[in-house]
Amino acid sequence: MLKIHVDMEKCQHYGQCVFEAPAVFHLNDEDKLEYAATADDSQRDDIQLAIEVCPMQAIKFVE
Ligand code: SF4
């Protein structure tokens, strides 16, 4: 099980993470980011890509 944290103080809701890992991240009806705090290990590569593309470096795995 993976644990994910997004620093919502940094997040600017650009949505790049949504394209990389749509099973974990999505934009709600108000274009605000929502995400799953936990994800299956099979999502690791997608989440890693989301971490890399996030322009605000707001996403990280929680150890
Ligand atoms: S890519 Fe980063 S800044 Fe953009 S919505 Fe995702 S977490 Fe927020």
Task: Give a brief outline of the structure.
Keywords: Electron transport, Iron, Iron-sulfur, Metal-binding, Transport. The protein is built from 2 helices and 5 strands.
What's the topology here?
Layout: E1 2-6, H1 16-20, E2 25-27, E3 33-35, E4 38-39, H2 44-53, E5 59-61
This protein binds iron/sulfur cluster.
Residues 6, 11-17, 25, 33, 54-56, 58-59 line the site of iron/sulfur cluster.
| Order of adjacent strands in the largest pleated sheet | 4-1-5
Structural class per helix/strand content?
alpha+beta
Low-confidence region ranges: none
Strand content: 25-35%
Do you know the CATH topology? Alpha-Beta Plaits
Q: How many whole angstroms does the radius of gyration measure?
A: 10 Å
Name the shape in a single word: globular
GO molecular function: iron-sulfur cluster binding; metal ion binding
InterPro entries: Fe-S_cluster_ET
Keywords: Electron transport, Iron, Iron-sulfur, Metal-binding, Transport
Can you walk me through this structure?
- This protein is an alpha+beta fold and 63 residues long.
- It has one domain: Alpha-Beta Plaits.
- The chain has a three-stranded antiparallel β-sheet with strand order 4-1-5, covered by helices on one side. Strands 2-3 form a two-stranded antiparallel ribbon.
- 21% of the residues are buried.
- The structure holds iron/sulfur cluster (SF4).
- Iron/sulfur cluster binds next to helix 1.
- The site of iron/sulfur cluster has 15 residues, from helix 1.
